[in-house]
Amino acid sequence: MNDPIWGIDLGGTKIEGVILPSLNEATPILRMRIDSESGKGYPHILERISLLISQMQDQSGLRPTKIGFGTPGVLDPILKTMKNCNSTALNGQPLQSDLENILGVPVVLANDANCFALAETHWGVVKQKFDGAAVVFGIIMGTGVGGGIVVNGKLWNGRHGIAGEWGHNFLDESGGPCYCGKTGCVETVLSGPALEKFYQSISGRKATLKEITHNYLSQPSDDAAKQTIERLALFFGKAVSVVTNLLDPDIIVVGGGVGNIDVLYTSGIESLRSHIFNNRLDVEVCKPALGDSAGVFGAAALVS
Ligand SMILES: [Zn+2]
Q: What are the tens digits of pLDDT across the range 154-194?
């Protein structure tokens, strides 16, 4: 019998841990979370992680032989330090070696979109709809836009550790400047804040994405909501077509708050169909199945 697998998800405010029996079983042996208290700085975050793992050991009577970590950014494969983290206390820190020194076991790190893709592949909607898929593209569209690529059940990280980062592909000048320093990135068009900004720019009114989506469905007089959501569907198809032409995945899973908007699965898919280099569209584009378990489950899958 294989050892149980351990995963830790480092969120902005919480640190969550799980012990799963194996890649084939979805019922955790143990699941725990504590506050990250990340405002107190990097050394304190390390102490909190160490505390959670010792509590997990005490409660389960198990000892990890290695641990997977879901992180807000990625470990630079050359510099061995963290980058692209929105939880900025981690940026520039040698998180992997620090964790290995403190915990005394090997650790594997991956960002949250990669963990999402991995979890949906092994326990979620990919398992249900396309078990054995060779190539999975997992998307998170929320405050930012990210993605992860799973090939034959394993993450594809890439030379720079940025494989799947389609959120910073060029999409359209109308998106304007991106925090990454470029202009018109996918994220500047398809993220939740980008949609709210676009709505305000054409209507002069502030509204949340939830309100915009609601108005699109039930307030035909709100033409700005119609334009915002129709633009989302059009550009979703354009942006995903670039990834589809390159990777030709078996299945695409769309998570995050923007990923919940139903129009992506009707006119968004129509737009994708009309923009790919093929006369029909066979790839399934679907919602995830795991909800907020995906991050911590995916972290555990890193060490399976
Ligand atoms: Zn960008």
A: 999 999 889 999 999 999 999 999 988 999 999 999 999 99
Would the pTM count as exceeding 0.85? Answer: yes
**What is the distance between the alpha carbons of residues 215 and 89, in angstroms, rounded to a whole number?**
38
Helix (H, G, I), strand (E, B) or coil at 230: helix
Cα-to-centroid distance, 126 and ligand 1 (Å)? 28
CA of 182 to the centre of ligand 1 (A): 5
Residue with tokens 């620090």: 98
**What's the longest Cα–Cα distance across the chain?**
62
Ion ligand 1 — residues with CB < 5 Å: 168, 178, 180, 182, 185
Amino acid at site 185: C
CB atoms within 10 A of CB 46: 17
Residue 290 CA to ligand 1 centre (angstroms): 28
